[in-house]
Description:
547 residues, 23 strands, GROEL, domain 1, 3-stranded antiparallel sheet, GroEL, 19% strand
Amino acid sequence: MNGQYGTQPIFILPEGTLRSTGKDAQSRNIAAAKAVAESVRTTLGPKGMDKMLVSSIGDVTITNDGATILSEMEIEHPAAKMIVEVAKTQEDEVGDGTTTAVVITGELLKKSELLLDQDIHPTMIIRGYRLAKAKALEILDKSSENVTINDIQTLEKIAMTAMTGKGGEAAKEPLAKLAVQAVKTVAETKDGKTVIDKSDVKIEKKQGGSIDDTELIKGLVIDKEIVHSNMPKHIKSAKIALLDAALEVKETETNAEIRITDPSQLQAFLEQESRMLKDMVKKVVDSGCNMVFCQKGIDDLAQHYLAKNGIAAARRVKKSDIEKLAKATGANIVSSVDELTKDDIGYAGVVEELKIAGEEMIFVRECKDPKAVSILVRGGTEHVVDEAKRAMDDAVLGIISAVETGKLVTGGGSIEIELARKLREYADSVGGREQLAINAFAEAIEIIPRTLAESTGKDAIDLLVNLRTLHDKGKTAYGIDVMNGELADMKTAGVVEPLKIKTQAIKSASEAAEMILRIDDVITSKAPAGPMGGGMPPGMGGGDYGE
């Protein structure tokens, strides 16, 4: 970065700084983004392939969940990191459709590269993409259908669509029923709208058994054990106390010193300590409870007294679990034993400790009107359980997204083909250079049905051409039946998805593509010198992005 001033060159940036500008910067960033999108593209759809990811310490993850793949891959390139953010947003907002969002982002950039080669300015492309995004969201809204929390069958179809192609697919029907039941149980109506807090459905996993053994608990599963061997392990009509206080003798806050000059004083001191613990336990007993969940510690002696009174207890239970227990059982969380009264006690039909896969877990079942529930996912091996849990997460979040927006669209690439068709019509009405960008946007969206068509193993171009013809004739629900490698009516086949998956994917994909297109200068600072005075070894940072 040196200009000629007289004969003296002027240096603005420190030596060793890498800089790429203009077309060069754009093509490197686009290449990096395309590489990320390409890495997850094959996982799309019910016949998507899996990826095996081995971390730097040798941990193995086998999955075809876009968000999981991208978070496990250690991505270095700055533009590629932006694509990972797209997946993260999609996962946080909707829970499913991460692969779709990433693949569309990559394809938008790929199409924009062709436009850049035709000397169309990036701002023109961005303007066209914005118009296309706004129009696409409008078309999506018009093409959607309504769904409510009471459309059980439709919600089950949404759950099954979310699970297809994931690890839990073998038992997707019973799992979808569980997911719908779970969401329906925790749904609340506020001001005429259905509100669901996704954290109220707790999904626990334990290997052992098979996926068919997955169960819904109208209450909670807590990954803790009952603290004392003399305590009951199975309690019917459990009256539950939730404590956010330790059943231990407190240390003094100030620095105090107790001097004991005589052995009998020591005895008195110890007796006083056990008396205080006894008093604490008495207050717990007086409240009428027979099960205590404590967020903090329980002293050994206090455990003994509780066991003598036939009260079971679990200690160091996570704060989030205590809060869910309050929702499930109707108990109040009490921060001081002195304040515990009969009114604070919650109810569950059964509380039992069971040994699952060699570890004890506490099941709180049969709550009256639980506003928090658990799904315990089982499976033959650790990898199977992990993938089944991811499938369950997608199913539950898919149902929640569908109910909250109250809209759904047909899947199998049908909505994308329809979008592309209508965007092409819209492009003709816009004209100008933006028209080229809108057409590019339409083509980019078609990557979804194209990928699905490729994964059938049949001729993808034939399938796509026939699908477009059907849509031109008004058969807008037709999409690709990947399992049989043919075209079918997706509504009849029950392949439906929440509208929110598509709208969020298009929003975040076009915004990320616009952001990367805007960059015309990449300045990478030089690598800091290592502790021995030398630079980093080659390939360790240093900023050779785009190599």
